[in-house]
TrEMBL record:
It comes from the Eukaryota. Residues 66-90 form the HSF-type DNA-binding domain. It comes from Oryza brachyantha (malo sina). Residues 139-166 form a coiled coil. Keywords: Coiled coil, DNA-binding, Nucleus, Phosphoprotein, Stress response, Transcription, Transcription regulation. One of its GO terms (cellular component) is nucleus. This is HSF-type DNA-binding domain-containing protein.
Length: 234
């Protein structure tokens, strides 16, 4: 808490004197406050040693934290700003950044973090461009993976709903069948008439295999019948 108060004091001093000695750049102050906020630890937090910070969920970071602190949703722009202030990416496999003066609980060091003065060489600009492109591609992959997971969950939910409804449908059908045992035979004969009218006599319904005789196919599958339409023939 004390370090956050110190950040606000240094930031206020920078606002009042136009960025003189002891001032903290607004970008640096906001980043320090964001990383230090324990309520956002699931998205961004300090590293275990307190000398780095990690963005654990770039998608949520872009969608929620960046608009709150920086009024935009561009993760690549945030990384570019970090580079401008001398931060470096310390782990190629995750979004972990470090600066020698960006340390947990050490807000008094923040005035040392200043924007780079020298003009970047062509090679540096090329490397920065490649890193930004890599950042954009990584975020897009994460979004695509998240979208794919959401679609898969929706499909699973639909399959579960369908599976849950089948026992009830079967019980209702069996109840109707008990009330009218002759309905299946009438349906078979009606199907036979339909096939004959279409010029395809088809196999004799009396020679059909019994329900389940072929390892799971029922009589309605054999006859290409909708069991619910069977009762419309009464």
């Amino acid at each position: 808490m004390g370090s956050e108060c110190k950040v606000h004091q240094l930031h206020a001093a920078g606002d009042s004197d136009g960025g003189g000695p002891g001032a903290v750049a607004p970008f640096v102050a906001k980043t320090f406050h964001m990383v230090s906020d324990p309520s956002t630890n699931a998205v961004v937090r300090w590293g275990d040693a307190g000398n780095t910070f990690l963005v654990l969920d770039p998608a949520a970071f872009s969608d929620f934290l960046l608009p709150s602190y920086f009024k935009h949703r561009n993760f690549a722009s945030f990384v570019r700003q970090l580079n401008t202030y001398g931060f470096r990416k310390v782990d190629p496999d995750r979004w972990e950044f470090a600066h020698e003066s960006f340390l947990r609980g050490q807000a008094q060091l923040l005035p040392r973090i200043v924007r780079k003065k020298k003009k970047a060489s062509g090679r540096e600009l090329c490397e920065e461009g490649e890193e930004v492109r890599g950042t954009i591609e990584a975020v897009q992959r994460l979004r695509d993976e998240q979208r794919g997971m959401e679609e898969e969950l929706q499909a699973m939910d639909q399959r579960l709903r369908t599976a849950e409804s089948r026992p009830g449908q079967m019980m209702a059908f069996l109840s109707k069948l008990a009330d009218d045992p002759g309905v299946v035979l009438r349906a078979m004969l009606a199907k036979k008439e339909e096939l004959s009218a279409a010029g395809n006599d088809g196999p004799d319904p009396c020679k059909r295999r019994r329900i389940g005789a072929d390892g799971g196919r029922d009589i309605f599958t054999e006859l290409d019948l909708d069991p619910w339409r069977v009762f419309e023939r009464k």
